[in-house]
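TL;DR need structure tokens for one chain.
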Amino acid sequence: MPYRVTFVCTGNICRSPMAEWVLRHHIEDEGLDVEVDSSGTGGWHAGDGADERTVAALHRAGYRSAHIARRFEPGWFDGYDLIIALDGGHLRALRSMAPDEEARGRVRLLREFDPDAGPDLDVPDPYYGGRADFDLALEMVEAAMPKLLEEIRAALKPA
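>> reply
TL;DR here they are.
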């Protein structure tokens, strides 16, 4: 059974699909048995594609993308090994809908995996910004990937 990771932001059109496709790139390169997807805490963009600025930032950096936005549902907790929030608001929302302490423990902030993140672990929402804001969000996502991949590799090792 594959290890399952999901990324969660607000509307699932900017930060979480960005993180999804960066991790997909790495797990495909390594051939890891991991399924990755994303969703949002809100459903107002459900059915939409990723923001065109997200897609452009991903493509400029050499990543693929294909995406349909959806809302994270409370019944999904059992389907994931790791649920990664992009900011503190998402973390609180996810933990408040978790059915139990074990599920709450699987919810983490992405920038917890960035050793240079400092005290502010939020990936700022680039939605109301421009190209530089999307590029900064992508840089923050990429900075967290090495340690996130380490954690995934460790979880995939036989006990």
